[in-house]
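Q: Is it fine to ask for two folds in a single conversation?
A: Yes, each is treated on its own. Send the first.
Q: Here.
A: Result:
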Amino acid sequence: MERAGVTSLIGTVALWLLMVSPGLSAETFQVAVMDQQAVIAQSKAGKRALEELKAYSMTRQKIINADDQELKELQQAIQDEKSTDSVKQEKQGQFQAKLEAYQRRLTDFNREIQQKQREMVAEYSKKVQAAAQAVGEKNGYVAVIDKGSEAAIKIVLYHQPALDVTDQVVKEFDRQNK
């Protein structure tokens, strides 16, 4: 999302908050912030999900590494081969076929891993939202805003440390997702 889009989104959210809570004075208007990535990284269920994704990736990586080694050995055999041109051509044909299969598998594995990541993000975003909502309702917050991160879009540029409810959301997330 472009910076102008983010600014517009933040302005829209602020306007919406003012419209839905016209009876609230500035003193009772409570907003909290949290770090959604930290909730996933620090919670028990989030850690399990990240470990499962890592294990899934590692099994795929082992297959790719074995294919890579096989290609290197075949290439070395072609270079070391002191046989006729027809035998070398046959081995080069085998190498080319294996290389194409390797590249297809690599592309497929990357697509699978990205799909799993997207599914995990979608699933856990809903779960984090539910935990944040529970914390927000319990503590009387009108909104709990994800701080964002340097890697993505940093949504909250400044907040007082006391407004950060990440630890509470982690505890609630763990309670809801045993």
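Q: Second one now.
A: Result:
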Amino acid sequence: MNDREYMRRVRAVEGRLYRVAQAMLWREADCLDAVQEAVFRGWMKKEALHDDERFEPWLVRILVNQCRDMLRRRKRDPVALKTDVGREDHLCEDLHLRLALRRLPEKYRLPLVLHHVEGYPLADVAAALGIPRKLAASRLHQARDALRKLLDGGDGV
């Protein structure tokens, strides 16, 4: 894949990439940074992609790893932790749903967002998260149950 084709494909999915980052990071500046870094890392490694049909899940996987790296660094930075409190995100229109999603652990929230919000098929969700398809299906099922409980006023997971 040449540089022009790579950038064409990135532009086609950049909205999805941002929303995936948003499901993990919440802060707009962090989301933008993560997407930019993932696009750069993907560009640097584009020769390693052997199946162009798998471009999107491959790039989402790079983004997920980048977001996780940022979260690990944030946990070591007490100033960053304090600035997270009270931040508003724009993942969903409904505040109740948004807050419920935020309460889900990442391992459940991410498959839910990838599949139901972004419309990725289960196989692509599994590939993007680097987990077996059955585990992705199980987490998706658990996420729906936990979200339902949270929305009904329960404890979720």
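Q: Anything structural to flag on that second result?
A: Two points. The chain has two domains: 1-90, 93-157. The longest helix spans residues 3-25.
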